[in-house]
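Question: I have long wanted to understand how a fold can be written as tokens. Here is the record:
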Amino acid sequence: MTGSTPRGLPAGMRLRLDTLDVDVAREEVARSYCPHVVTPLTGHFHASHAEADGSGLGVFALSYGPGRVRVSPVPFGDFVLVSRPIEGALDVHTGPRTIRAAAGEAVVLDADSEHELVFDAGCRLLTVKIPSALLIRAGALTGHRDRLRTGKASDARPWDLATRVLLRDAVPHGLLASPMGPALAQLVATAAWESFGAERSEGVASADAVARARAYIADNAHRRIGLLDIAAAAGVSPRTLQARFRERLGMSPTQHLRRVRLEHVRADLLARRGGSVAEVAWQWGFGNLGRFAAEYRRTYGTLPSADLDR
């Protein structure tokens, strides 16, 4: 059964499932999350599942009815979940820990751990699914190095704000699938870090951030990388990384990247590897040949074509 909006949820969420069949529920819910086992424990089983998605995010509302139900998923791998009971309570078992989220309390479930979830009788769960790649980029921007770990919020306010934006504006008006979707997804991922991430450790992390960044550039200069990728690899925010580079090297990370690429281009030209000047330049990430030739001449005092002809 599909097409209507479940009771108490904002407009814009599509009802994908309304069933008394455990196997049907498991198969359909797995399409939104991951493979898992569903075990009714007590009471009547009645699953309903609604969703709204866009820009990589998933927003889901899930209930298994008036009975208690245990859900045992495989580790997520490439996403995390932030879940909040709208009604009832949810118990999250991971290793030796049990985390109980009462109505209104949010809990994050990380990508790597094994979890067992127990839905109390009447639990209705609102969940946001966030891709790990999106979290990595948001972490680089905000200076968070570690992964999100399963647990409750250290400061619930950022996530509460993001949830209000989703439920009051983004979902009812279809904004997740609009041109605003990527910006909203970034907001949600940032809020997850601010509420559930460990405290920033940039003071310690930035001490060797330049070394980590230079190593990453050395290994990946041939790839289409930029400041956000370098900062993520270094474990600090882009602003911090730029400041550290200027203090240590007198240039920005992207200027260092271009310098390394120029060195590779010149080495290939002198060794006659890779074809023409244009081909070699393109292989090392230089798309504007005029700008490339001018920068090459400023750096080495000669044109790239002259080095190729030596």
